[in-house]
User: Fold this.
Amino acid sequence: MASASTTIAPHEAAHFGRLAKDWWDPAGSSAMLHTLNPPRLGYIRAAVDAHWGGDAQGFAPLAGRTALDIGCGAGLLAEPLARLGAAVTGIDAAPENIAVARDHAASGGLSIDYRAGGIEATEGARFDLVTCLEVIEHVVDRAAFVAGLAGALAPGGLLILSTPNRTPLSRLALIGIAEGTGRIPRGTHDWNAFLTPDELTALLTAAGLRVIDTTGLVLSPARGFVTGTSTQLDYFMTAVPARD
Assistant:
């Protein structure tokens, strides 16, 4: 299992920790994450239903299952996963985020196991669903981090990641425009740390996983962020244990 010292970038944890108090403000510094949540949840729900043969009309497709959200921030994804029925563990490198996440979950009557730390904070537990959205570009030693994700995945489980692609479009949109105009806090992204789909696939394969889907996240002028065929800006990737 990867250790915190090999995967957590302290300056990244400090950057996101400074944003903790505004995390749940849809007009605050994390506004972009709020706009990303609907397509994220739609993708996850479809992947979960396809993997476990769920009813797309059901309200709790994750009932009886465990879920890990690694890099959970203040809980924007962990809380919906809990409402979908999962027993959720959320882990984040910034203790400030975990404090806000715990308070927000408690105020909504949700029981979520939040922990500050890196992937090693799972303490060897395995989960049916592991999510890692817009996180891998912020860690060091990606191979160790992905090995940790693979180690946290239960047999028959499902791993879902998302991350920006390293393309001219992502440099323009996420850094030049979004950070340049203040829609995303300056310093949030390092374009050179973005991963292409081929690079991420190679990391997952080396960790004993098999990629079963890659879907783009695109910006529609009419509908905002939606899933699509182009991976030039950002993309989702779903993997399962190769032995399954």
Notes: Residues 4-164+194-216+236-241 form a domain with the Rossmann fold fold (CATH 3.40.50.150). Residues 1-5 have pLDDT under 50 and may be disordered. The chain has one domain: 4-164+194-216+236-241.
